[in-house]
Amino acid sequence: MKRIFPLMFVFLLCGCASTYGLRYPPTQWLRDTDREPIDLKALAKANPNIIKSKRDIVDQVTDILKFSEQISDMAAMPVKGHRESYNLNNFDEVADSTWFTNRIGRTGKLDIEGMTISPHFPLTITEVDIAEKGQTVLISKDKDGRALIIELDLPDQPEIITASEVIASRFLYAAGYNVIKNALFHPALKQLRIDKDAVANRPNKIPEPFTKADLKSILAEHKRAVIFELPDDDFLGPFSFRGKRYKDTNDRIPHEDRRELRAYRIFA
Question: What is the chain's Cα-based Rg?
């Protein structure tokens, strides 16, 4: 009888063990394989938010860059979850992926140069967006043909928008998130050119030709800007904070169960 008790105790412990298997191999999992080729045509057909044109790219990027307007929305993101995150290895770490990169925890060094941009002047303006409140965005390309967005401060709020966006992006970059390369920029007339087909978009108006006089007027009111480089990759559009992108074979983990997205709410 005495021999039975130790055996029963072992069975009891086994019954208390988790039945949830190892999510990843029992090694230090460092990098996710979520960069495999995918069928973009099928993805675009299945997801209406997939980017269809260069204009769509600009619109979505400029929306992303409005940190001052979106910070309260990000803080209320629905990524909370009621269970342990799925994308952890057996050392309770998040692997590098298209969502997140361990920039500090693994190397102990932070390469800020990896997120700055040094455009080659002159810049050629191809399109201008002028909002009702005076916020102006110049869509341009540099001497090497790189697509750039120049977002100017509001005339009555100098250095507020540009400072918040540059500072916030560096905090997020250091934390491990993907950000668009950017830099502060003090625009001068000698650094800018106007494309012959450049147009100005104003609220509730038909696009009009953008002229040198228009540019001079803008530069007289706006003294500082932040310049962004559009990534030269395939744009998949915005993502949801819950679920997965339909038909995207690289998107395997429900977004509400990704630890980096839960942490993003805290940074916001």
Answer: 24
Is residue 99 pLDDT above 70, yes or no?
Answer: yes
pLDDT digits (tens, 9 = 90+) for 103-147: 887 666 788 777 889 999 999 999 999 887 778 999 999 999 999
In order, the DSSP letters of the chain are: -TTHHHHHHHHHHHHHS--PPPSS-SS---B--------HHHHHHH-TTS--SHHHHHHHHHHHT-HHHHHHHHHT-S---SS--SSB-TTS-BPB-SSB--SSTTTS---GGGGB----SPEEEEEEEE-TTS-EEEEEE-TT--EEEEEEPBTTBTTHHHHHHHHHHHHHHHHTB----EEEE---GGGEEEEEEEEEE-TTS--EE--HHHHHHHHHH---EEEEEPPSS-------SSS--TT-TT--S-GGG-HHHHHHHHH-
Cα gap 220→212, rounded to integer Å = 12
- Phi, psi for 94 (deg, rounded to 5): -95, 130
pLDDT at 61 over 50: yes
Q: Look up residue 97 and give its amino acid.
A: S
Q: What was the pLDDT predicted at 22? A: 42
The amino acid occupying position 130 is: I
In the chain, what percentage of residues exceed pLDDT 70?
A: 75
Length of the chain: 268
Structure-token match 């005076």, residue found: 134
Does residue 122 have a cis bond before it (omega within 30 degrees)? yes
CB 243 within 8 A of CB 254: yes
Residues 257, 25: Cα–Cα separation, whole Å: 19
Helix 259-267 with 67-75: angle, nearest 10 deg: 120
Among 21-25, 73-77, 229-233, the range scoring the smallest mean pLDDT is 21-25
